[in-house]
Amino acid sequence: MCETCGCNITPGNRHLVEPGGKHAHTHDGHAAVAVLQNLLHENDHQAEHNRAHFDRARVLAVNLMSSPGSGKTALLEATIDALGGALGIAVVEGDLETENDANRIRAKGVPAVQISTGSACHLDAHMVHDALHAMDLVGIDIVFIENVGNLVCPASFDLGHHLNVTLLSVTEGDDKPAKYPVMFRAADLMLLSKSDLLSVLDDFRPQSAETALRNLANEAPVIALSARSGAGMDAWLAWLHDVLAAHRAHLRGGETTQPTVRSDGVHAHRHGASAAEAAPQ
Amino acid sequence: MHELSVCQSLIRQAEAVAREHGTEVIVLIRLSVGPLSGIELPLLERAFTVARCGTRAARAELVTEALPVRVRCRTCHAETQTPPNRLICGACGDWHTELVSGDEMLMTGIELEMEESHV
Fold this sequence. Notes:
The structure holds two protein chains of two kinds. Chain A has helices at 14-17, 41-56, 72-83, 100-106, 125-133, 176-179, 181-185, 206-214, 233-252; strands spanning 30-38, 60-65, 89-95, 112-116, 142-146, 163-169, 189-193, 222-224. By secondary structure, chain A is α/β, with parallel strands linked by helices. Chain A has two domains: 1-37, no CATH class; 42-252, P-loop containing nucleotide triphosphate hydrolases (Rossmann fold), CATH 3.40.50.300. The longest helix of chain A is centred in the last third of the chain and has 20 residues, at 233-252. The mean pLDDT of chain B is 93. Chain B is an alpha+beta fold. Chain B is elongated, with a radius of gyration of 18 Å. At the A-B interface, strand 1, helix 2, helix 6 and helix 7 of A face helix 1, strand 1, strand 5 and strand 6 of B. Strand 1 (30-38) of chain A pairs antiparallel with strand 6 (105-113) of chain B.
Protein backbone atom coordinates (compact mmCIF):
# COMPACT_ATOMS: atom_id res chain seq x y z
CA MET A 1 0.00 0.00 0.00
CA CYS A 2 0.91 3.59 -0.49
CA GLU A 3 2.47 4.93 2.67
CA THR A 4 1.02 8.37 2.02
CA CYS A 5 -2.66 7.61 1.86
CA GLY A 6 -3.07 3.85 2.18
CA CYS A 7 -4.07 3.29 -1.44
CA ASN A 8 -2.25 1.06 -3.86
CA ILE A 9 -2.02 3.53 -6.72
CA THR A 10 1.33 4.49 -8.18
CA PRO A 11 2.20 6.74 -11.12
CA GLY A 12 2.69 3.54 -13.10
CA ASN A 13 -0.80 2.17 -12.61
CA ARG A 14 -2.90 5.25 -11.92
CA HIS A 15 -4.23 5.35 -15.50
CA LEU A 16 -5.88 1.96 -15.00
CA VAL A 17 -8.37 3.13 -12.40
CA GLU A 18 -8.99 6.77 -13.13
CA PRO A 19 -12.46 7.67 -14.47
CA GLY A 20 -12.54 6.56 -18.08
CA GLY A 21 -9.72 4.12 -17.43
CA LYS A 22 -10.09 0.75 -19.03
CA HIS A 23 -11.04 -0.99 -15.81
CA ALA A 24 -13.73 1.45 -14.71
CA HIS A 25 -16.47 0.19 -17.01
CA THR A 26 -18.98 -2.55 -16.55
CA HIS A 27 -18.56 -5.39 -18.96
CA ASP A 28 -21.53 -6.83 -20.88
CA GLY A 29 -23.61 -8.84 -18.46
CA HIS A 30 -20.86 -8.96 -15.86
CA ALA A 31 -19.98 -6.72 -13.00
CA ALA A 32 -16.50 -5.34 -13.36
CA VAL A 33 -14.95 -4.65 -9.99
CA ALA A 34 -11.90 -2.45 -9.87
CA VAL A 35 -9.47 -3.66 -7.25
CA LEU A 36 -5.90 -2.72 -6.72
CA GLN A 37 -4.36 -5.31 -4.52
CA ASN A 38 -0.93 -6.78 -4.37
CA LEU A 39 -0.91 -10.40 -5.53
CA LEU A 40 0.77 -11.34 -2.27
CA HIS A 41 -1.69 -9.40 -0.12
CA GLU A 42 -2.09 -12.30 2.36
CA ASN A 43 1.66 -12.67 2.74
CA ASP A 44 2.10 -8.91 3.15
CA HIS A 45 -0.58 -8.83 5.84
CA GLN A 46 1.19 -11.57 7.79
CA ALA A 47 4.53 -9.80 7.25
CA GLU A 48 3.19 -6.62 8.87
CA HIS A 49 2.08 -8.72 11.83
CA ASN A 50 5.58 -10.25 12.10
CA ARG A 51 7.22 -6.81 11.88
CA ALA A 52 4.97 -5.51 14.68
CA HIS A 53 5.98 -8.53 16.76
CA PHE A 54 9.69 -7.74 16.24
CA ASP A 55 9.06 -4.06 16.96
CA ARG A 56 7.29 -4.78 20.25
CA ALA A 57 10.37 -6.75 21.32
CA ARG A 58 12.66 -3.89 20.07
CA VAL A 59 14.34 -6.43 17.82
CA LEU A 60 15.92 -5.74 14.42
CA ALA A 61 15.16 -8.49 11.88
CA VAL A 62 17.66 -8.93 9.04
CA ASN A 63 16.85 -11.10 6.01
CA LEU A 64 19.99 -12.78 4.62
CA MET A 65 19.69 -13.83 1.00
CA SER A 66 22.14 -15.34 -1.48
CA SER A 67 22.89 -18.32 -3.69
CA PRO A 68 23.34 -21.66 -1.92
CA GLY A 69 26.88 -22.01 -0.63
CA SER A 70 27.84 -18.33 -0.58
CA GLY A 71 28.59 -18.49 3.14
CA LYS A 72 25.51 -17.23 4.98
CA THR A 73 25.84 -19.67 7.87
CA ALA A 74 29.62 -19.21 8.07
CA LEU A 75 29.06 -15.45 8.22
CA LEU A 76 26.61 -15.89 11.10
CA GLU A 77 29.04 -18.14 12.98
CA ALA A 78 31.83 -15.58 12.56
CA THR A 79 29.47 -12.74 13.51
CA ILE A 80 28.44 -14.50 16.73
CA ASP A 81 32.11 -15.09 17.59
CA ALA A 82 33.12 -11.51 16.76
CA LEU A 83 30.28 -9.99 18.79
CA GLY A 84 31.32 -12.05 21.79
CA GLY A 85 27.90 -11.62 23.41
CA ALA A 86 27.82 -7.82 22.92
CA LEU A 87 24.46 -8.19 21.19
CA GLY A 88 21.73 -10.76 21.74
CA ILE A 89 21.38 -12.80 18.55
CA ALA A 90 18.81 -15.35 17.42
CA VAL A 91 18.56 -17.06 14.04
CA VAL A 92 15.75 -18.41 11.89
CA GLU A 93 17.18 -20.89 9.42
CA GLY A 94 15.43 -21.72 6.16
CA ASP A 95 16.37 -24.81 4.19
CA LEU A 96 14.53 -27.37 2.14
CA GLU A 97 15.72 -30.16 4.44
CA THR A 98 17.95 -30.88 7.49
CA GLU A 99 18.64 -29.10 10.78
CA ASN A 100 22.32 -28.79 9.91
CA ASP A 101 22.48 -25.00 9.80
CA ALA A 102 20.44 -24.52 12.98
CA ASN A 103 22.74 -27.00 14.74
CA ARG A 104 25.80 -25.01 13.64
CA ILE A 105 24.28 -21.87 15.16
CA ARG A 106 23.20 -23.66 18.39
CA ALA A 107 26.75 -24.95 18.76
CA LYS A 108 27.72 -21.28 19.19
CA GLY A 109 25.28 -20.97 22.10
CA VAL A 110 22.76 -18.94 20.11
CA PRO A 111 19.08 -19.92 19.80
CA ALA A 112 18.06 -21.06 16.33
CA VAL A 113 14.80 -22.28 14.85
CA GLN A 114 14.97 -24.34 11.69
CA ILE A 115 12.25 -24.00 9.06
CA SER A 116 12.23 -26.97 6.68
CA THR A 117 10.43 -25.78 3.58
CA GLY A 118 10.21 -29.21 1.94
CA SER A 119 10.29 -28.35 -1.72
CA ALA A 120 9.51 -24.65 -1.39
CA CYS A 121 12.18 -22.40 -2.83
CA HIS A 122 11.70 -19.48 -0.43
CA LEU A 123 10.52 -18.49 3.03
CA ASP A 124 7.24 -16.64 3.34
CA ALA A 125 5.76 -14.57 6.14
CA HIS A 126 3.58 -17.44 7.40
CA MET A 127 6.55 -19.79 7.83
CA VAL A 128 8.46 -17.10 9.72
CA HIS A 129 5.40 -16.44 11.89
CA ASP A 130 5.28 -20.13 12.86
CA ALA A 131 9.00 -20.08 13.64
CA LEU A 132 8.57 -17.02 15.85
CA HIS A 133 6.18 -18.99 18.05
CA ALA A 134 9.17 -21.17 18.92
CA MET A 135 11.47 -18.23 19.62
CA ASP A 136 11.79 -16.22 22.83
CA LEU A 137 12.82 -12.66 21.91
CA VAL A 138 13.62 -11.59 25.47
CA GLY A 139 17.23 -10.36 25.53
CA ILE A 140 17.50 -10.50 21.74
CA ASP A 141 18.71 -7.48 19.76
CA ILE A 142 18.98 -8.88 16.23
CA VAL A 143 17.17 -11.80 14.60
CA PHE A 144 18.84 -13.03 11.43
CA ILE A 145 16.54 -14.82 9.03
CA GLU A 146 18.73 -16.98 6.82
CA ASN A 147 16.58 -17.43 3.74
CA VAL A 148 16.65 -20.44 1.43
CA GLY A 149 19.72 -20.24 -0.82
CA ASN A 150 18.19 -18.89 -4.02
CA LEU A 151 18.71 -15.64 -5.91
CA VAL A 152 15.21 -15.60 -7.39
CA CYS A 153 12.14 -16.35 -5.30
CA PRO A 154 13.06 -15.06 -1.80
CA ALA A 155 13.18 -11.50 -3.17
CA SER A 156 9.43 -11.48 -3.80
CA PHE A 157 8.29 -12.26 -0.25
CA ASP A 158 8.17 -9.80 2.61
CA LEU A 159 8.85 -11.74 5.81
CA GLY A 160 8.26 -8.85 8.19
CA HIS A 161 11.99 -8.17 8.39
CA HIS A 162 13.47 -4.67 8.51
CA LEU A 163 16.46 -4.92 6.18
CA ASN A 164 17.78 -7.11 3.37
CA VAL A 165 21.39 -8.21 3.25
CA THR A 166 22.44 -9.95 0.04
CA LEU A 167 25.65 -11.97 -0.11
CA LEU A 168 27.60 -12.42 -3.31
CA SER A 169 30.58 -14.73 -2.87
CA VAL A 170 33.63 -13.98 -4.94
CA THR A 171 33.55 -17.52 -6.35
CA GLU A 172 30.41 -16.46 -8.24
CA GLY A 173 30.36 -14.08 -11.18
CA ASP A 174 30.78 -10.37 -10.52
CA ASP A 175 27.86 -9.80 -12.93
CA LYS A 176 25.34 -11.50 -10.62
CA PRO A 177 23.50 -8.21 -9.87
CA ALA A 178 22.85 -7.77 -13.61
CA LYS A 179 21.63 -11.36 -13.88
CA TYR A 180 19.35 -11.25 -10.81
CA PRO A 181 18.13 -7.65 -10.73
CA VAL A 182 15.08 -8.29 -8.53
CA MET A 183 17.24 -9.77 -5.77
CA PHE A 184 20.08 -7.26 -5.87
CA ARG A 185 17.82 -4.23 -6.28
CA ALA A 186 16.30 -5.22 -2.93
CA ALA A 187 19.65 -5.28 -1.08
CA ASP A 188 20.12 -2.74 1.71
CA LEU A 189 23.69 -4.01 1.99
CA MET A 190 25.70 -6.17 -0.42
CA LEU A 191 28.39 -8.34 1.13
CA LEU A 192 31.12 -9.75 -1.09
CA SER A 193 31.84 -12.91 0.88
CA LYS A 194 34.87 -15.25 0.83
CA SER A 195 37.07 -12.25 0.00
CA ASP A 196 40.14 -14.25 1.17
CA LEU A 197 39.83 -16.13 -2.13
CA LEU A 198 40.17 -12.99 -4.27
CA SER A 199 43.93 -13.47 -4.38
CA VAL A 200 43.56 -16.77 -6.23
CA LEU A 201 40.67 -15.72 -8.48
CA ASP A 202 41.47 -13.59 -11.50
CA ASP A 203 37.92 -13.23 -12.80
CA PHE A 204 36.04 -11.52 -9.96
CA ARG A 205 36.45 -7.77 -9.67
CA PRO A 206 34.72 -6.20 -6.67
CA GLN A 207 34.45 -2.92 -8.58
CA SER A 208 32.52 -4.67 -11.38
CA ALA A 209 30.09 -6.15 -8.86
CA GLU A 210 29.57 -2.72 -7.34
CA THR A 211 29.01 -1.15 -10.77
CA ALA A 212 26.43 -3.82 -11.58
CA LEU A 213 24.68 -2.96 -8.29
CA ARG A 214 24.71 0.79 -9.05
CA ASN A 215 23.22 0.06 -12.48
CA LEU A 216 20.16 -1.12 -10.55
CA ALA A 217 19.96 2.40 -9.04
CA ASN A 218 20.90 0.84 -5.71
CA GLU A 219 22.90 3.04 -3.34
CA ALA A 220 23.43 0.28 -0.76
CA PRO A 221 26.89 0.03 0.81
CA VAL A 222 29.16 -2.79 -0.36
CA ILE A 223 31.49 -4.58 2.07
CA ALA A 224 34.01 -7.24 1.05
CA LEU A 225 34.61 -9.64 3.90
CA SER A 226 35.86 -13.07 4.82
CA ALA A 227 34.30 -15.06 7.64
CA ARG A 228 37.41 -17.25 7.57
CA SER A 229 40.18 -14.61 7.77
CA GLY A 230 38.11 -11.99 9.57
CA ALA A 231 38.93 -9.31 6.98
CA GLY A 232 36.07 -6.84 6.60
CA MET A 233 34.23 -8.13 9.67
CA ASP A 234 34.76 -4.82 11.49
CA ALA A 235 32.89 -2.92 8.77
CA TRP A 236 30.05 -5.46 8.86
CA LEU A 237 29.74 -5.25 12.64
CA ALA A 238 29.82 -1.45 12.48
CA TRP A 239 26.98 -1.55 9.93
CA LEU A 240 24.96 -3.84 12.22
CA HIS A 241 25.44 -1.51 15.19
CA ASP A 242 24.47 1.49 13.03
CA VAL A 243 21.28 -0.04 11.64
CA LEU A 244 20.28 -1.35 15.07
CA ALA A 245 20.69 2.15 16.54
CA ALA A 246 18.74 3.66 13.62
CA HIS A 247 15.98 1.08 14.07
CA ARG A 248 15.69 1.79 17.80
CA ALA A 249 15.50 5.52 17.01
CA HIS A 250 12.65 4.79 14.56
CA LEU A 251 10.87 2.77 17.24
CA ARG A 252 11.22 5.58 19.78
CA GLY A 253 9.55 7.85 17.22
CA GLY A 254 6.68 5.41 16.87
CA GLU A 255 7.88 4.18 13.47
CA THR A 256 9.46 1.04 12.13
CA THR A 257 12.20 0.26 9.61
CA GLN A 258 11.47 -1.10 6.16
CA PRO A 259 13.76 -2.33 3.40
CA THR A 260 14.49 0.48 0.92
CA VAL A 261 12.90 -1.57 -1.84
CA ARG A 262 9.74 -3.31 -0.74
CA SER A 263 8.90 -6.68 -2.22
CA ASP A 264 5.27 -5.69 -2.62
CA GLY A 265 6.08 -3.24 -5.39
CA VAL A 266 5.34 -0.18 -3.32
CA HIS A 267 7.62 2.74 -3.85
CA ALA A 268 7.55 6.26 -2.60
CA HIS A 269 5.39 8.29 -4.91
CA ARG A 270 3.61 11.57 -4.89
CA HIS A 271 -0.09 12.06 -5.30
CA GLY A 272 -0.15 15.43 -6.99
CA ALA A 273 2.26 18.23 -6.22
CA SER A 274 3.28 17.35 -2.70
CA ALA A 275 2.86 14.68 -0.11
CA ALA A 276 1.25 17.24 2.17
CA GLU A 277 -1.66 17.60 -0.23
CA ALA A 278 -2.28 13.87 -0.28
CA ALA A 279 -4.34 13.69 2.86
CA PRO A 280 -5.60 10.25 3.87
CA GLN A 281 -8.81 9.46 2.02
CA MET B 1 9.32 -21.25 -9.18
CA HIS B 2 7.04 -19.34 -6.82
CA GLU B 3 4.37 -18.47 -9.39
CA LEU B 4 2.06 -21.20 -8.07
CA SER B 5 2.05 -19.75 -4.54
CA VAL B 6 1.47 -16.29 -6.00
CA CYS B 7 -1.41 -17.71 -8.05
CA GLN B 8 -3.05 -19.41 -5.08
CA SER B 9 -2.87 -16.18 -3.12
CA LEU B 10 -4.33 -14.26 -6.07
CA ILE B 11 -7.28 -16.65 -6.37
CA ARG B 12 -8.04 -16.48 -2.65
CA GLN B 13 -8.12 -12.68 -2.91
CA ALA B 14 -10.38 -12.78 -5.98
CA GLU B 15 -12.70 -15.21 -4.17
CA ALA B 16 -12.92 -12.81 -1.24
CA VAL B 17 -14.05 -10.04 -3.63
CA ALA B 18 -16.60 -12.42 -5.22
CA ARG B 19 -17.96 -13.31 -1.76
CA GLU B 20 -18.35 -9.62 -0.93
CA HIS B 21 -20.46 -9.26 -4.07
CA GLY B 22 -22.48 -12.37 -3.31
CA THR B 23 -21.55 -14.40 -6.37
CA GLU B 24 -20.02 -17.83 -6.89
CA VAL B 25 -18.60 -17.20 -10.34
CA ILE B 26 -15.51 -15.23 -11.28
CA VAL B 27 -15.43 -14.68 -15.03
CA LEU B 28 -12.18 -12.82 -15.43
CA ILE B 29 -9.19 -11.63 -13.42
CA ARG B 30 -6.98 -8.77 -14.58
CA LEU B 31 -3.37 -8.41 -13.53
CA SER B 32 -0.68 -5.85 -14.16
CA VAL B 33 2.82 -7.13 -13.62
CA GLY B 34 6.21 -5.52 -14.08
CA PRO B 35 9.43 -7.46 -14.68
CA LEU B 36 10.96 -6.26 -11.40
CA SER B 37 8.23 -7.95 -9.37
CA GLY B 38 10.04 -11.25 -9.87
CA ILE B 39 6.98 -12.82 -11.46
CA GLU B 40 7.20 -14.37 -14.90
CA LEU B 41 3.89 -13.91 -16.68
CA PRO B 42 4.05 -17.06 -18.87
CA LEU B 43 4.74 -19.16 -15.75
CA LEU B 44 1.97 -17.41 -13.84
CA GLU B 45 -0.49 -18.03 -16.68
CA ARG B 46 0.36 -21.74 -16.70
CA ALA B 47 0.15 -21.98 -12.92
CA PHE B 48 -3.27 -20.31 -13.07
CA THR B 49 -4.75 -23.15 -15.13
CA VAL B 50 -3.87 -25.51 -12.27
CA ALA B 51 -4.57 -23.24 -9.29
CA ARG B 52 -8.08 -22.22 -10.43
CA CYS B 53 -9.45 -25.80 -10.33
CA GLY B 54 -12.18 -26.27 -7.72
CA THR B 55 -12.37 -22.56 -6.91
CA ARG B 56 -14.84 -19.79 -7.77
CA ALA B 57 -12.38 -18.95 -10.54
CA ALA B 58 -12.54 -22.44 -12.08
CA ARG B 59 -13.71 -21.04 -15.42
CA ALA B 60 -12.12 -17.62 -15.13
CA GLU B 61 -9.99 -16.08 -17.79
CA LEU B 62 -6.70 -14.48 -16.76
CA VAL B 63 -5.90 -11.24 -18.56
CA THR B 64 -2.40 -9.99 -17.92
CA GLU B 65 -0.73 -6.74 -18.75
CA ALA B 66 3.05 -6.54 -18.76
CA LEU B 67 4.12 -3.12 -17.52
CA PRO B 68 7.34 -1.53 -18.75
CA VAL B 69 10.22 -0.51 -16.52
CA ARG B 70 10.41 3.26 -16.33
CA VAL B 71 12.73 5.40 -14.21
CA ARG B 72 12.89 9.09 -13.39
CA CYS B 73 16.33 10.63 -13.14
CA ARG B 74 17.08 12.53 -9.95
CA THR B 75 19.78 14.49 -11.74
CA CYS B 76 18.21 15.57 -15.05
CA HIS B 77 14.58 14.65 -14.20
CA ALA B 78 14.03 12.83 -17.51
CA GLU B 79 11.69 9.85 -17.43
CA THR B 80 12.83 6.98 -19.62
CA GLN B 81 12.12 3.31 -20.26
CA THR B 82 14.94 0.95 -19.31
CA PRO B 83 15.79 -2.78 -19.27
CA PRO B 84 15.11 -4.38 -15.85
CA ASN B 85 18.80 -4.85 -15.06
CA ARG B 86 19.99 -1.41 -16.11
CA LEU B 87 17.97 1.21 -14.29
CA ILE B 88 20.13 4.12 -15.35
CA CYS B 89 18.79 7.30 -16.92
CA GLY B 90 18.25 6.88 -20.65
CA ALA B 91 18.91 10.59 -21.17
CA CYS B 92 22.03 11.39 -19.12
CA GLY B 93 23.27 7.96 -18.01
CA ASP B 94 23.21 8.71 -14.27
CA TRP B 95 22.32 5.79 -11.99
CA HIS B 96 20.65 8.00 -9.40
CA THR B 97 17.13 7.23 -10.55
CA GLU B 98 13.87 6.22 -8.95
CA LEU B 99 11.54 3.63 -10.29
CA VAL B 100 8.29 4.96 -11.72
CA SER B 101 6.91 1.60 -12.81
CA GLY B 102 8.04 -1.96 -13.41
CA ASP B 103 7.87 -3.63 -9.98
CA GLU B 104 4.10 -4.00 -9.75
CA MET B 105 2.33 -7.26 -9.09
CA LEU B 106 -1.23 -6.05 -8.94
CA MET B 107 -4.68 -7.51 -9.32
CA THR B 108 -6.36 -4.53 -10.99
CA GLY B 109 -9.85 -5.87 -11.51
CA ILE B 110 -12.12 -8.84 -11.68
CA GLU B 111 -15.36 -9.53 -13.51
CA LEU B 112 -18.15 -11.41 -11.80
CA GLU B 113 -21.21 -13.24 -13.07
CA MET B 114 -24.07 -11.63 -11.21
CA GLU B 115 -27.73 -12.53 -10.67
CA GLU B 116 -29.97 -10.62 -13.13
CA SER B 117 -31.29 -8.35 -10.39
CA HIS B 118 -27.80 -7.27 -9.40
CA VAL B 119 -26.59 -6.20 -12.82
